[in-house]
Automatic annotation (TrEMBL):
Coiled-coil region list: none
Name assigned to this protein: DUF72 domain-containing protein
Length: 280
């Protein structure tokens, strides 16, 4: 029984010197805190193969990367005429091996029910050796039962998961910080969705910069994740806050809360200590 938890990144300036070393292999240190990470950087540019090889070297085979497809495929080309970009992406990420838990297809908010044919054709052409997870942001998929069923059929035929991004707690009150105000304009405002389509559900959750409001807001997910684990599923839960300053500790806290209800759950790794700063 294993729950994977993680954050949106493995290098974040507020963590350096506090949770992670000032320099060196920060991913290796991050992997002593969490056993999964979102691969958001690949959305902006496909990394070199040597860079991805270094990611694999710094993590164990059970570590999970949920790697986002480049925006040139999902947002600019909208799942059409993408062969060259996709080939380059798959070649570059190949060194991750089993660490590539799922390839993440994040679609723009304008990608709606009328575009499901493009998504179905795209998923049919993808290599069968990978798992796929799709995140949609068009409100129709959350508010119209027929559209939701149509999307579930498309995903189900490809064995793909639907990734919810739960922003309900974040939007319950007006923003109180610069980070919250920035996120307020960027995060999708859609209803919460919590139905797993596969044995490996993936959840993205964003709270507030107030830690206790974040923790209070994930009570629903603690219960749902416990249910999934009891059903034999292996979920991955990503914790976000607008400034992400405490996201590392929060991810571990979420895991601890689930483990309080399921003591048989495999524990997270021991955290790698951060040594004192050196003069040289």
């Amino acid at each position: 029984m294993r729950l994977h938890v993680g954050c949106a990144m493995w290098a974040h300036p507020p963590w350096q010197g506090r949770f992670l070393p000032q320099s060196g292999e920060r991913l290796r240190a991050y992997a002593s805190w969490c056993n999964a990470v979102e691969g958001n950087t690949t959305f902006y540019a496909t990394p070199s193969r040597s860079t991805v090889e270094s990611w694999a070297e710094q993590t164990g085979p059970d570590f999970r990367f949920v790697v986002k497809l480049p925006k040139s495929i999902t947002h600019e080309r909208r799942l059409a005429d993408y062969d060259e970009e996709l080939r380059a992406f798959l070649t570059a990420t190949e060194p991750l091996g089993p660490r590539a838990h799922a390839l993440w297809v994040q679609l723009p908010g304008s990608f709606g029910p009328a575009d499901l044919g493009a998504l179905a054709g795209f998923l049919r052409r993808l290599p069968a050796e990978h798992r796929y997870a799709v995140e949609v942001r068009h409100r129709a998929f959350f508010e119209d039962a027929g559209s939701a069923r149509d999307l579930e059929r498309v995903l189900g035929s490809a064995g793909a998961e639907w990734v919810p991004f739960d922003t309900t707690v974040f939007f319950q009150g007006r923003p109180n910080s610069d980070a919250e105000r920035d996120a307020w304009t960027k995060k999708p405002r859609v209803p919460r969705r919590s139905v797993a389509l596969t044995d490996r559900p993936i959840v993205r959750y964003i709270g507030r910069d107030d830690t206790e409001r974040t923790v209070e807001g994930w009570r629903f997910w603690v219960g749902r994740v416990v249910d999934w684990l009891r059903e034999g599923r292996s979920p991955t839960f990503f914790v976000h806050t607008p400034d992400n300053a405490e996201a590392l500790t929060l991810a571990r806290r979420f895991h601890d809360e689930v483990r309080e209800r399921l003591p048989e759950l495999e524990p997270l790794p021991e955290r790698e200590p951060v040594g004192p700063p050196t003069l040289f």
